[in-house]
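Data availability (excerpt). All sequences and predicted token strings are deposited with the supplementary files. A representative entry, S1 RNA-binding domain-containing protein, is shown inline so that the format can be inspected without opening the archive.
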Amino acid sequence: MRYRIGDIVEGTVTGLQPYGAFVQLDQTTQGLVHISECRSAYIKQVQDELKVGQKIQVMILDIDEYDQKISLSQRSIQDLQDIKDADFTEKHNFESTYHVYWTNQHLNIGFETIKKHLNQSLQEALVKLRQ
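Structure token line:
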């Protein structure tokens, strides 16, 4: 079977390692679910989440073009389901939302800081370019 990135397929867990779980997708194809792709929360051990022989649904994240190794994710499917279940019908009043600014919005300094250090910055840039 030919797999594509983004496909959701069912497979069987065939092996567990500290770094993830190997999943058999068909008779000739196997992929790896990295421990970070099991679910969104922290997982101490893969064995706490998956068992050998367990059938799971996974999303194909990546297929290495040279050795055809397949990276799988169980977390992506859960995230997709959370998005589908989310209620986006509630309207939000974005005008009253608190905004975070990188500078103090009460100070009106404009470009004074840049103007003050412009010559020094230009000299440093010219020295680096001439190296």
